[in-house]
TrEMBL record:
Family: Belongs to the methyltransferase superfamily. METTL23 family.
Transmembrane segments: none
Gene Ontology terms for molecular function: protein methyltransferase activity
SUPFAM superfamilies with a match to the protein in the record: S-adenosyl-L-methionine-dependent methyltransferases (SSF53335)
Name under which the protein is recorded: Methyltransferase-like protein 23 isoform X4
Pfam families reported for this sequence: Methyltransf_16 (PF10294)
Length: 185
């Protein structure tokens, strides 16, 4: 079955080994980034530099979860600003539910592309709720020279309406993608 990437389902890819530096884009409440920080990764959380209240939510999440070492920066998709220029090379970019507005898709990928220029081995790990079967990243991935692999939720026991005592997944269709630089992984 095809997913939003236009590619067929495959199994979990091997990652590039060294996965210490994580950056979350469109972080909001920042759950994946906070979890990565709790697991020992160097984490930078980001949200739009034009949405200071969202950056404040990231900071509050860090405080409430006792990870004061996590940096919070303003990265607006599609904009090359001071914080994006300053960000060090990353190993993993986390993106939870950022593909919700098709007009933003290319801006998101252009920001990811910029980070791929700093480390061509960086991977974008993204989960998203399928809101329309008509949306596709396929042409944009081709344009920005990226490859995408679909990660079945059942491969990490996440194909459930309840996860970790949360009923949030409910009956929504949720997908996971890993996007890498170049035509092949
Ligand atoms: C649907 S929320 C997801 C929040 C969080 N990642 C989660 O899964 O709960 C989308 C997030 O993207 C951020 N966002 C929206 N437009 C953005 C932009 N142009 N650049 C950067 N972040 C943006 C919002 O502030 C919000 O935090």
């Amino acid at each position: 079955m095809a997913c939003m990437s236009g590619l067929v389902r495959r199994s979990w890819p091997s990652t590039s080994g060294f996965t210490d530096e994580f950056c979350q884009i469109g972080a909001g409440v920042s759950l994946p980034g906070i979890l990565a920080a709790k697991c020992g990764a160097e984490v930078i959380l980001s949200d739009s530099s034009e949405l200071p209240h969202c950056l404040e939510i990231c900071r509050q999440s860090c405080q409430m979860n006792n990870v004061p070492q996590v940096d919070v920066v303003g990265l607006t998709w599609g904009h090359v600003g001071r914080d994006l220029l300053a960000i060090p090379p990353q190993d993993i970019i986390l993106a939870s539910d950022v593909f919700f507005e098709p007009e933003d898709f290319e801006d998101i990928l252009s920001t990811v592309y910029f980070l791929m220029q700093k480390n061509p081995k960086v991977q974008l790990w993204s989960t998203y709720q399928v809101r329309s079967a008509d949306w596709s990243l396929e042409a944009l991935l081709y344009k920005w020279d990226m490859t995408c692999v679909h990660i079945p939720l059942e491969s990490f026991d996440a194909d459930k309406e309840d996860i970790a005592e949360s009923t949030l997944p409910g009956r929504h269709t949720v997908e996971m993608l890993v996007i890498s630089f170049g035509k092949t992984l």
